[in-house]
Amino acid sequence: MSALLKIRSQRDQMSAIERRIGDFILDNAHLLRDYSSQQLANALEISQSSVVKFSQKLGYKGYPDLKYAIGEDIARGDGGNHDPAHESDGNGDRHAALAEALWQAKANAEQETRLLNPPDSLDAIAETIRSARTVFVIGLGQDSIAARGFTLRLSQVGILAVYHFDPALMPTSLANANHEDVLMVFSEHGKRAALCELSRLFRHRVGKVVSITRHSANPLRAQADLALLVSAHDERSHIEQLLYHSALQHLLDMVFVLLCEHVGERLQLLDRNAARMRQLLET
User: Fold this and answer.
1) Does residue 75 fall inside a structural domain?
2) CA 137, CA 95: separation in Å to the nearest integer?
């Protein structure tokens, strides 16, 4: 596992000082080779021993080993700043380089996301959905794409799932909900006030809430009983969005596979529904 990936995946378990060190390294990875442990400590106004302990907590002998590992990450293009667009003159080579870099960035985002969602957490979410009477799903804007797609997948395996696109109208639909129901809220940054309030009310009066957000401290995640976390980082905004949606889709696919894995009836139902769809499309 790359050093930068370790820092991102373990950030939630770090102390305040460790998070300051980690955030500084993530933001200045390309400059780290010019920093000694004392210079890094001075920049953050902390002790040199804190930098050494941080390195050792990540599994390195000391700061020099951590700095060397980060240098290797950057050389491989894991630092999030690699742009292959200008590395070759021929269009064919350029396209191949772009495709390879994008694939690698997506793979890194999916790996980080997988580390942030341990098996026990995914199993708990899958079981919560599997045992729910009704799964209510909501997502606004770009989040609605993944929310609607996941709702459709749930329906295909016989899980009663209801997609909503307007939090103002949702309370009417929830009037008959009970403690056996689940609310899944898709919100990349988890800061939409309407969704946070809806989640709070649902959790307090009805059933469980599952949030799907970025790996960040946000109000929606704080309101949820269970959380799916997505990690995707790149200085280029258009690339970062691609990484986020790729990692999110991979995570949702994993939950869907878990839902089907131990229940043969669901797979049979999925096959029957697929056959019906093919029949409708061919007639």
Assistant:
1) yes
2) 38
Here the CATH number for the domain that contains residue 132 is 3.40.50.10490
Give the largest Cα separation in the chain, rounded: 73
Per-residue tokens: 10 = 């373990």
Phi, psi of 263 (to 5 degrees): -125, 100
- Examine the domain organization and report whether 146 and 258 are in the same domain: yes
Q: Is residue 88 part of a domain?
A: no
**Could you report the per-residue pLDDT of 255-276, keeping only the tens digit for each?**
999 998 766 666 676 677 777 7
Using CA atoms in the order 222, 225, 231, 235, what is the torsion angle rounded to 10 degrees?
-30
Q: Check which CATH number belongs to the domain holding 27 and give it.
A: 1.10.10.10
Contact 109, 233 (CB under 8 A): yes
Tokens (6 digits) for 213: 């957000």
User: Which residue(s) pair with 229 in the sheet?
Assistant: 213
Cα–Cα nearest to 2, from 96, 102, 80, 93: 80
Task: Flag whether pLDDT at 78 surpasses 70.
Answer: no
- Asked if residue 268 belongs to a domain, the reply is yes
In a domain, 71, yes or no: yes
Residue 137's Cβ-count burial label (10 Å; 0-12, 13-18, 19+) is buried
Report helix, strand or coil for 90: coil
Q: What total number of domains does the chain contain?
A: 2
pTM given for the model: 0.74
pLDDT, tens only, 108-165: 889 889 988 999 999 999 999 999 999 999 999 999 999 999 999 999 888 999 999 8
Q: What is the dihedral of CA 203, 207, 211, 216, to 10 degrees?
A: 40
Clarify whether residues 155 and 212 are in a common domain.
yes
- Tell me which residue range forms the domain holding 12: 1-79
Q: Report d(CA 154, CA 130) in Å as an integer.
A: 9
Same domain? 136 vs 72: no
